Amino acid sequence: MTQRVDLLITNASQVCVVPSVNGGPQRGKALGTLGIVTDGAVAVDGGQIVEVGAAADLRLRYDAARTINADGRAVVPGFVDPHTHLAWVGDRAAEFEQRIGGATYMEIMAAGGGINSTVRAVRAASVEQLVDETRARLNRVLRNGTTTVEIKTGYGLDTVSELKLLDAIFRLAAEHPATIVPTFMGAHAVPPEYDGRTDAFVDLIVHEMTPAVAERLRSYSQETPVFVDVFCEPGAFDLAQSRRVLEAGLTHGMRAKIHADEFASIGGARLAVELSAVSADHLVTTPDADIVALGQADTVAVALPATPFGLGHTHYTPARALIGAGAALALATDCNPGTAWCESMPFVMALACRYLRITPAEALAAATLNAAYAVGLGDQVGSLEPGKQADLLILDVDDYRHLAYRFGGNLVQTVIKGGQVVASV
Amino acid sequence: MTQRVDLLITNASQVCVVPSVNGGPQRGKALGTLGIVTDGAVAVDGGQIVEVGAAADLRLRYDAARTINADGRAVVPGFVDPHTHLAWVGDRAAEFEQRIGGATYMEIMAAGGGINSTVRAVRAASVEQLVDETRARLNRVLRNGTTTVEIKTGYGLDTVSELKLLDAIFRLAAEHPATIVPTFMGAHAVPPEYDGRTDAFVDLIVHEMTPAVAERLRSYSQETPVFVDVFCEPGAFDLAQSRRVLEAGLTHGMRAKIHADEFASIGGARLAVELSAVSADHLVTTPDADIVALGQADTVAVALPATPFGLGHTHYTPARALIGAGAALALATDCNPGTAWCESMPFVMALACRYLRITPAEALAAATLNAAYAVGLGDQVGSLEPGKQADLLILDVDDYRHLAYRFGGNLVQTVIKGGQVVASV
């Protein structure tokens, strides 16, 4: 007796399941548990994974309305990119050129560059412009295999502009095949009109922006979680200010994320643990004690190696120490116009293997299952376990390790989101 | 009175001509001379560039059989990749994984890995297999904008297998749209059967392989130059052995290239200058005196930053010192299955800007005009000067700087080779 299903993907050289461990992300030594089925198949129905198993077996047991022959290629979960600043207009190519030429950050700021140039452009842009430019990026992100992507606000930095960014993100969420997770990040930087008055800007965030964002969120009847984030770093928001920003978001029903320890450590990772943040991101300069704390917490440690790379730096997240401490490590692109315009999760995997010294298997789990937990969707996406959304990729190669072994290209042949082919070579 | 031409590419936001300087490559401070025409057009006839100029002007003066509207996008010369090992079979993903896991080179060799595993695979392969696997790479190389590519032998390491590799390269040269420049590199490594007897292997190269290759080359009636190359490095071929290999090639009408100073300097760059080699490649550990010598020589200095990147290293070619000394700097992928499976010249540009501290303009000239000089084709390809082959790219963006500013993706929209569209999104 065969079971009817919508789709059977068959003849895969490998199906990498990337299972949850103890009902959560893969932590410590468990990171890199792929649950590979060779000569595998995936049965999909109603947009969800029904079963992963041997192709010979599944072909007998399922009667599929549609069959996709993977033809000896590898199948992996769609990537989850849990940290991006994808919603912006314009670019900063000129600033990149100045930086390569030796200009300092202060010189670039004085010449009208830096984050403020993107803030000016976003404030002047219509929501349509924001949607159009971000959609083009999102299409490339999808084409590179990312089926779930977090997008932060944070180039508006006044209430009207932050709401405009949120509107753009929700419009894209409604129209685009990728699952989009919105994060409110009014505390991305201190805007020029609040220069030297960071506490006053935090007041604005706490008393005006956060309630306005929460109000707007209710109008969207959003099903996925919404996050609040803050750039906790010297020169941006100190620990007390970061706490105020996150607590305001928590009070309004958001879940916490934090930019911590990118250039200097001022306690952001510890704050993340204390507030049960869903993730702590960057973590380049994290002290040993905070690594231990992350190892024992539910907070996912998100490494963003494209950012040091984009800046030409050579210091990266101490991933092996985090893994050794038992932390749940995830990877993300940090895609943004200033430091890392990178739309490819496989490139981040290739970078992480080489400079964070994680294996291809660890990188795949960090870019899928653990990244899903870093956006609160660990029970819905990020692995090929029964009941999860059928978000998966057929690669142009028979071995998932090539995703990290090679670099600079795109080995994703077919992108399937919720059981539908949404991109294909 | 209008002039009939085959093709007019019009409405380009920028056309980057990348002109020769003093009839040669761009050296020293001249590196990065792009000759940008804004709102430009390119007239093409008989597969060659006829003129680059203002679109409004060229539209009036040319009557084109076909017009391509670049629609506000940037046009640059097709990339020239002057150093690849693109002809191989199989892969070394498992070795990559072992290396990330901490295995040493000696452990990998002992486990049957390293270059010898590729040599075994190539010796066992048919020429058809070699052609098929290399064609797939070549198609991706072309899709990433490379219209001229050098390919070395060197995974055969016996006379029969080196000739087989040469046959595969020439078959691809005959069938593929890209211009392929062959290099004989019997001295890529010492094969297992000559372990501890490097001089005897050099005897084989000098007395048997080189004449046999020269004989085979005559049967192809090759129009483009053919090169001889050697891996001059401790543990591979010492300076005296390298000299013997290159002089044998020179005697048989080949032109010299050299792998020098990748891990340690034993005088390879000086040898290149002495033998008027067309290029000296790698140049990571090159001493100051040899940088000065390269600055005064015709030998092009080829940086291969994908290789240190691929190995997870942080030491790169001292490009600024080479430029300061007046050298002609070029970029290449070094695409190979061991250290750098990278098929994208734009990725190499992005890497070079960040870690070799060269500007996007310098990177573009190094990846086009100077790279053409590094394969002896500086008078035929690498720039959009009248009389050169019409090899050019329409980007998916209005500013060439994005090629280096962004990373991990592919911004090449349309590839035109000899006036024909050969790849397009």
Keywords:
homodimer; 425 residues; alpha/beta; Urease, subunit C, domain 1; TIM Barrel
Account of the protein in words:
- The structure is a homodimer of 425-residue chains.
- In chain A, strands 1, 2, 3, 4, 5, 14, 15 and 16 form an eight-stranded mixed sheet that branches. An eight-stranded parallel sheet of chain A has the order 6-7-8-9-10-11-12-13.
- Chain A has two domains: 3-77 and 383-424, Urease, subunit C, domain 1 (Roll); 79-373, Metal-dependent hydrolases (TIM Barrel, Alpha-Beta Barrel).
- Chain A is an alpha/beta fold and 425 residues long.
- In chain A, strand 7 (146-152), helix 6 (159-175) and strand 8 (179-187) form a beta-alpha-beta unit.
- The first copy, chain A, has 16 helices and 16 strands.
- The interface between A and B is large, with 42 and 41 residues.
